[in-house]
Amino acid sequence: MGVEKAGKEAIAAAAEHLRAGRLVAFPTETVYGLGADATQSLAVAEIFAAKGRPTFNPLIVHVLDVAAAEQHVIFTPLARQLAGAFWPGPLTLVLEKREGSPLSDLVTGGLSSVAVRSPDHPVARALLEATGRPLAAPSANRSGHVSATKAEHVAADLGDKVAMVLDAGATAHGLESTIVDARGDHPVLLRPGAVTVETIEAVIGGKVVRGDIDAARPSAPGQLLSHYAPSARVRLDARDVGPGEALLAFGPDPLATAGAMINLSPAGNLNEAAANLFAALRALDASGAEAIAVMPIPQSGLGEAINDRLRRAAAPR
Ligand code: TXA
Ligand code: MG
After folding, report:
1. CA of 9 to the centre of ligand 1 (A)
2. Could you give the domains of the chain?
3. What would the mean pLDDT of 38-63 be, rounded to a whole number?
4. pLDDT tens figures, 244-269
């Protein structure tokens, strides 16, 4: 574990951990974040494993500024205005993912949009600078627990799961960032947070539309994958592979097939499988198969989240 005062050397060590694919908890002006390099799928999978999240909610990507964000998302005029007024700060913008962005599919939960924010905390900023990578970071608490506003909270919840906790005392807001979908002409509120709707409305001189707050974490079958729901049908718990089917395999003994096949983890490692899941679905879909047969995946650890997503992909549509 290692809770360390967030001085220069600790921040440099933390950046080293992050680049090596390990998790680091760090302070932001809202709450402590459980950070990973957002371009490394295995590192992002570790976030879900550490939090014990039963589903792959899309995560917020932290960047230094608009220029850094533009490597990953496409800014609308509205987004530019909002970032100009509130960045760095506790406003998260949901924008269309840019083609060629190196962000892991696991960060976006397979969606075509990305939530980005530029934190206003000297330690978070120094860490972003030292790491030189976009950082995915949900609040640093176990799933279902309250958010962590002190390093001690993080240590109690996740101490054995992270390479390091950077300690900079209590966070200023103690409440997560406000999330706004800024892809259109009018901001759509997806999560109320540290920046009030009234402040946003004062800046843009217009109304904030209250979105379906749950749209951020869709629960209806199929919905979450709808942006790229495979055009192939998905068949779960496959014990054989039929004609015209591609195989999504798991473990050391993949089913026999002459067609397209991707093994999520030949070693049977669920973190590795999670890291590969979305890219594998895309690739098998692109193979032109009419259906994807999915081998059984254990329900333990990240298996629960993997199976949750696969069930959505397989749901009738
Ligand atoms: O204050 C904060 O925002 C903290 C600190 C650590 O920065 N971070 C945080 O991140 O709360 P996280 O990953 O827990 O927030 C995830 C939420 C999701 O549940 C979802 O509501 C929204 O962000 N989200 C992420 N990507 C999205 C997307 N592409 N479309 C819609 N909502 C998205
Ligand atoms: Mg949270």
Report:
1. 29
2. 2-210 (3.90.870.10), 233-314 (3.40.50.11030)
3. 93
4. 999 999 999 999 999 999 999 999 99
- Is any ligand 1 atom within 6 A of the Cβ of residue 230? no
The CA distance from 16 to 87, in Å, is 26
Give CA–CA dist 187/83, Å, rounded. Answer: 12
Regarding the beta carbon of 101 and ligand 1, being less than 6 Å apart is answered no
Distance from C-alpha of 196 to C-alpha of 194, rounded to nearest angstrom: 6
Chain segment 107-166, per-residue pLDDT in tens: 998 889 999 999 999 999 999 999 999 999 999 988 878 888 899 989 999 989 999 999
| Ligand 1 contacts CB of residue 190 (under 6 A) | yes
**Secondary structure letter of residue 156 according to DSSP:** H
CA geometry: angle 145, 147, 148, nearest 5 deg: 115
pLDDT of amino acid 293: 98
Ligand 1 mutation pick, 62, 179, 180, max ligand atoms within 8 A of CB: 179
Residue 73 has pLDDT above 80, yes or no: yes
Rounded distance between C-alpha atoms, residue 108 and residue 103, angstroms: 8
Q: Half-sphere exposure of residue 32, counting CA atoms within 13 Å on the CB side?
A: 32
Cα–Cα nearest to 207, from 221, 184, 227, 187: 187
φ/ψ (deg, to 5) at 279: -65, -35
pTM for the model stands at 0.87
